[in-house]
Amino acid sequence: MQDNPNHLPIKELYSHLREKLKLELVTDETGLLRHIETPEVNRPGLALAGYFDDFSFERIQLMGITETNYFKTLNKERQQYILKRFFSYEIPCIIFTTAETELKIPPIFIEFCRKFHVPLFSTPLPTSHFHGQLYHHLEDYFAPEITMHGDLVDIFGVGTLITGEGGVGKSECALQLVERGHRLVADDIIFIKKYTPDILVGKCSNLVRHNMEIRGIGVFDVSQIFGFGRVRYQKKISLVVHLIEQRQVSLARTGLEKEKEIILGVEVDRKIIPVKPGRNMALLIEVAALVFRQAQMGIGGAQSLNDKLIDAMQKRVKPGSVDNGW
C-alpha cells in the first residue's frame, strides 16, 4: 500500500500548475519551501472583515475580486491591523485571481508577504474557473491511494477490476475483452485512488499507458494495434472479478450470495469465477458486468427468480401449472 502524501510543497504545486493556471510568482522564491497540507481552499472574506475565530489559515488563501475590492475600501490603519493579525498565522500561500487585468494587488499585501516570507501569486483567470482547476489538482494529490496487481477494463461502462494469482490468465482475459470491443484502462499494475467515501478510480502509470504484457508475446501498445477507441486513461471501479483455479474452492451456483471486496475502506461488488480449460473467460466476465448493470437498474436476476419460486411455493402452485402469461 502506498502512503498517502500528507503535504504538498508550494514549489511543486507552482511547477505543475504554472502554465496551466497562468500563475505568476509576485514575491521571491523564499516562501516556496512552505507546504500545503489539505486540498481545501479558503476565501478569507470574513478574516479581512476582522473575524478570525474560524479562520482556516492552513489552506491556500484565494483572493478574488470581492475580497480585493473590499480590502481596498479599508483605510490604511485598518489594513495594517487586519494584515498583522492575518499574517500571525502560518499561511501556506496567497493567490490573487481576477478576470480583469486592471485589478492590481494592493502594495501593502505584497509588503506583508515579503516580510513574512509567504509566497504570493497572481493569475488573470476568473476565480471560479481557477478554484475548480486548483481543487481538482489538490484533490487528486491528497486522495488516499494504493496499487494493485490485475487488469482494469471498461466493460459496457462498468469499471471491472480483474484479479487473481499470477499466471491465472488476467491479462489474456483483458486482451480478449479488448478484442470484443471493450476498453483497457490498465494492465498489471493499477493505481487506485479514493476520491469520495464511496468512489474509487483506477488508472495506469503514465510511463506504461496503454501497454500490455502477454506471456509468450511480450509487451505491446494496445492503442496502436486495436485503436485509441479501445483504451482509456482512468475509470471508476464498480466490480471486482476474481479468477481462481476451479479446484481451489466449491462455489455457489445461484448467485444469491453477495460477495464484497474492501478497497481503501470502500465495499465493491465481487464475483469469483473459476478458470478451466475450454471456458470462455472473456464472455463470462462480460456477462458478470452485464449482470451487475442489471442489478444496479433493479432488473431481474437470481433474486427475482428466487422470489417467484418462493411465491409459487407459498401459493402451492404445481410447477406445471404456473401461469406463463399467455
Summarize the main sheet. 8 strands, mixed
Radius of gyration: 28 Å
Number of helices: 10
Shape: elongated
- Alpha carbon gap, first and last residue: 57 Å
Average pLDDT works out at 87
Which regions are unreliable across 5 or more consecutive residues at pLDDT < 50?
Answer: none
CATH homology group of the largest domain: P-loop containing nucleotide triphosphate hydrolases
Integer count of domains: 2
> Helix proportion of residues, in percent?
25-40%
Total number of strands: 17
Q: Which structural class best describes the helix and strand composition?
A: alpha/beta
Describe the structure.
With 326 residues, the chain is of the alpha/beta class. Helices cover 31% and strands 28% of the residues. It contains ten helices and 17 strands. It has helices at residues 10-17, 45-48, 65-73, 76-86, 107-115, 127-142, 170-179, 222-226, 281-296, 302-314, and strands at residues 8-9, 24-25, 35-36, 41-42, 60-63, 94-97, 120-123, 145-155, 158-164, 183-196, 199-203, 211-214, 218-221, 234-236, 239-245, 259-263, 266-275.
